[in-house]
Amino acid sequence: MKVGIIQQHNTADHDDNRSRLAKSILQLAQEGAELVVLQELHDGLYFCQTEDVSNFDQAVTIPGPTTDFYSQVARKAGVVLVTSLFEKRMAGLYHNTAVVFEKDGSIAGLYRKMHIPDDPAYYEKFYFTPGDLGFQPISTSVGRLGVLICWDQWYPEAARIMALRGAEILIYPTAIGYEPTDSAEEQQRQREAWETVQRGHAIANGLHVISVNRVGFEPHPHSATDKGILFWGNSFVAGPQGEIIVRASTEEEENLLVDINLHRTEEVRRWWPFLRDRRIDAFDCLLKRCGEEVHASSQIKEKRE
């Protein structure tokens, strides 16, 4: 399957961002792309650098005019399209939501971001309610897509559940970058950790991973003293043994087209049968906030007996 990824530098002009994305999607389709993946919250700037109630005005309904736009683009291009939108579900209830469109423009499915960060310059808990759709792959004409979003990529449990439920590819629309005053060494450590953990998901589950990040500097919207975020790009596709198939630039916008062989999953899982050897009888601790809770409950049970 041919996959297109679009790494873009955004501005505050949503119409311009969408127009450039549409042009890139059509270009990749003309080059043979069957699946195109966009970055997280691709319609505008990354507004979560600050807590500002006026930013809720950027949210869109699903379905609505924005999904109509991407539906038309997907249909015209004849591609399965993975988008990432700020969803207004109702007054006071908002999500960070991936919308997947079929080649005919219909909505194949939604994924609402489950893990919501709350860190300096990433104040997402102010805006987004945690997802309520769980970790469910989305069935499309190109396969079952395990779509997750950004902060989800640090959690092996999310990738594993998608794999166990039949995902054929893991997909991560992303918005992550540096604090610009960090040392070059610290920036490298962060970027390499981000890539390494996702390559680990590819290996542990025998699946391709597609991770599409934004690129470029976005200043803090209200303060000249705050440093803003330098998004580090480096969008990539990894194979089921963690091998890098393609990697985008750290600094430049790029549209990349890559061939992936989904049959590799079957081959790799035969060689490395991690799913066969899982000790599901010993994983109770994963359902607790802390391992000590399991130990304490066991002690109480023993005393009662």
Give a verbal description of the structure:
With 305 residues, this protein is α+β, with helices and mostly antiparallel strands. The protein has helices at residues 14-30, 65-77, 156-164, 184-205, 264-271, 291-304, and strands at 2-7, 35-37, 80-90, 93-101, 107-112, 118-119, 122-123, 138-140, 143-147, 169-174, 177-178, 208-213, 215-218, 229-232, 236-238, 244-247, 254-259. The protein has one domain (2-279): Carbon-nitrogen hydrolase (Nitrilase/N-carbamoyl-D-aminoacid amidohydrolase, 4-Layer Sandwich), CATH 3.60.110. Helix 1 (14-30) runs parallel beside helix 2 and helix 3 (156-164) packs parallel to helix 4.
How much β-strand is present in the residues?
25-35%
State the distance separating the first and last CA atoms. Answer: 58 Å
| Mean pLDDT, all residues | 95
Shape: globular
Helix content: 25-40%
Radius of gyration (Å):
20 Å
* CATH domain class: Alpha Beta
- Give me the CATH superfamily: Carbon-nitrogen hydrolase
The description of the largest β-sheet is: 6 strands, mixed
Number of domains: 1
For this structure, the CATH topology is Nitrilase/N-carbamoyl-D-aminoacid amidohydrolase
CATH architecture field:
4-Layer Sandwich
Summing up helix and strand content along with how strands pair, one would put the structural category as: alpha+beta
Q: Give, in order, the helices and strands.
A: EHEHEEEEEEEHEEHEEEEEEHH
Helix count equals 6
Number of strands: 17
Q: What are the segments in which pLDDT stays under 50 over at least 5 consecutive residues? A: none
